[in-house]
């Protein structure tokens, strides 16, 4: 069953119109995405071609994947939704909380044109930053273990980024058969849509690939076990009962929403904080 899309509020509609009007005429969404995926896939291909008689080193991908999931959760929860007064970090917050979360809510979370890729995909500098961090980590691993291990570490990091962008895109495209039926994609689409509810956005559903860290850290809107989280799909059966009134309230009334998040009552704040 498709998730219901409700009419967007006047506040959201005006924000969207203003945001789109201020996108540079020089911006091309298709070029943005093509370059990003081309660099990512080329990097993965190059690293894979350097592997030589690889065997047990593939096991290194497991802890790197888990660490990446935790970093993804941390960056979303503690940087994208927490204003840190340092230029680069403050800019991440501005772009995410003050733009992305105003443009998309759980009432209307889809895009219509490639011009809107500007509000969905990270800027290219994020990919550059990933390379600047991942390459030294890969090199250090190659010194400590071997070259295969170093390439695998870097591949997992780049692969995580590509998966992140792909899953996020799938969360914001119009409803279709693929996003509704493909495992993990349907789970993260519901998970991320719920995150865009403006009543719980500052606290819940911080993962954007697999909701592993949200399950581990207790920041999921669901009350389910590990595998239930991974394969939840579109089901809303297991949403935490205490969150339902807040979700419903902010879905239907955005009068207490600001650019920096919701203005919660003391009782609501206590509930959200768990």
How many structural units, i.e. domains?
1
Task: Classify the secondary structure makeup into a structural class.
Answer: mainly alpha
Strand order of the largest sheet: 1-2
Count helical runs: 13
C-alpha Rg, in Å?
19 Å
Poorly predicted spans: none
In percent, how much strand structure appears in the residues? under 5%
Major pleated sheet: 2 strands, antiparallel
**Helix coverage percent of residues?**
55-70%
Number of strands: 2
The shape is globular
N-to-C SSE string, H for helix and E for strand: HHHHHHHHHHHHEEH
Mean pLDDT score = 96
Distance between the termini: 30 Å
Short description:
This protein has 274 residues and is mainly alpha-helical. Helices cover 61% and strands 1% of the residues.
State the main characteristics.
single chain; 274 residues; mainly alpha; two-stranded antiparallel ribbon; 61% helix; 1% strand; globular
Write structural notes for this entry.
With 274 residues, the protein is mainly α. The two termini are 30 Å apart. The chain has one domain. The mean pLDDT is 96. The chain is built from 13 helices and two strands. A two-stranded antiparallel sheet has the order 1-2.
Topology:
Elements: H1 10-21, H2 29-50, H3 61-80, H4 87-103, H5 117-120, H6 124-144, H7 147-172, H8 177-181, H9 185-195, H10 212-217, H11 226-230, H12 244-252, E1 257-258, E2 261-262, H13 266-273
Antiparallel strand pairs: 1-2
Helix pairs in contact: 2-7, 3-7, 6-7, 7-9
């Amino acid at each position: 069953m498709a998730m219901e899309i409700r009419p967007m509020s006047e506040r959201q509609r005006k924000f969207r119109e203003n945001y789109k009007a201020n996108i540079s005429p020089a911006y091309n969404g298709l070029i943005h995405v093509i370059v990003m995926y081309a660099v990512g896939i080329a990097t993965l291909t190059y690293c894979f071609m350097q592997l030589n008689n690889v065997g047990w080193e593939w096991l290194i991908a497991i802890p790197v994947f888990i660490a990446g999931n935790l970093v993804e959760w941390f960056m979303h929860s503690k940087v994208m939704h927490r204003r840190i007064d340092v230029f680069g970090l403050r800019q991440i917050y501005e772009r995410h909380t003050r733009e992305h979360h105003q443009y998309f809510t759980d009432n209307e979370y889809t895009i219509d044109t490639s011009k809107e890729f500007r509000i969905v995909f990270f800027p290219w500098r994020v990919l550059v930053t990933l390379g600047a961090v991942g390459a030294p980590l890969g090199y250090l691993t190659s010194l400590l273990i071997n070259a295969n291990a170093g390439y695998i570490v870097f591949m997992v990091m780049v692969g995580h980024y590509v998966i992140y962008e792909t899953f996020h895109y799938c969360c914001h495209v119009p409803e279709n058969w693929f996003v509704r039926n493909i495992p993990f994609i349907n789970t993260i689409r519901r998970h991320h849509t719920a995150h865009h509810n403006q009543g719980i956005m500052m606290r819940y559903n911080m993962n954007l690939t697999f909701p592993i860290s949200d399950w581990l850290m207790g920041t999921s809107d669901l009350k389910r076990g590990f595998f239930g989280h991974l394969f939840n799909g579109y089901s809303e059966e297991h949403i935490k009962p205490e969150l339902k009134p807040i979700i419903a309230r902010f879905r239907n009334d955005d009068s207490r929403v600001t650019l920096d998040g919701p203005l919660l009552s003391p009782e609501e704040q206590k509930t959200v904080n768990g």
